[in-house]
Amino acid sequence: MQRITKILISVILFFIIGVFFLGLNKDTNYNTKSLVGKKIPNIDLEYLNEKKFYKKDDLKKNNYTLINFWASWCAPCRVEHPILIQLSKKKNLKLLGVNFKDNKKQAITFLNDFGNPYDFLTKDEQGKHSVAFGVYGIPESILVNNELIILKKFVGPLSIEDFNSIIEIIK
Fold first, then answer.
1. Over the stretch 130-156, which tens digit does the pLDDT of each residue have?
2. Is domain 34-170 classified as CATH 1.10.8.60?
3. How far apart are CA 96 and CA 99, in angstroms?
4. Alpha-carbon gap, residue 55 to 44, rounded angstroms
5. pTM for this model (two decimals)
6. Could you give the 3-state DSSP secondary structure of residue 93?
7. How far is the CA of 23 from the CAs of 17, 136, 161, in angstroms?
């Protein structure tokens, strides 16, 4: 009986060590690069100020759309905001803002204070719609064309390099 107990303990110990070593080799970074080149998931986002919904077919009306996930409480969103203002001046690009887990009043105050770069302003109060886009933190932006193909995904605040990359794509 004692021998069976020792064997059982050894098997359990080897199993735990094996699981541990398998876990060490697993890539734990959340990677959304696999979304690039694929069609955008179905979207049904309620406008921030209206009881209308922005849908997938609305994206087809624009040559290019930059979907930007942001919030008034997000410090990096403030950093990227001047770049969004500059992008909003480009004729071949529309900006779709998705206000992420935010208070409506604070979001409107933020846009009144810093400027509203968005052609379309929607909300994702619970963050459930953003999951379909692979969003796991904000700010994040996704560039799509009128064929609903994801051309590029930007994680974190947009930089001047990102700005130049977007301009190059939408020429």
1. 888 888 889 999 999 999 999 999 999
2. no
3. 10
4. 5
5. 0.80
6. strand
7. 10, 22, 35
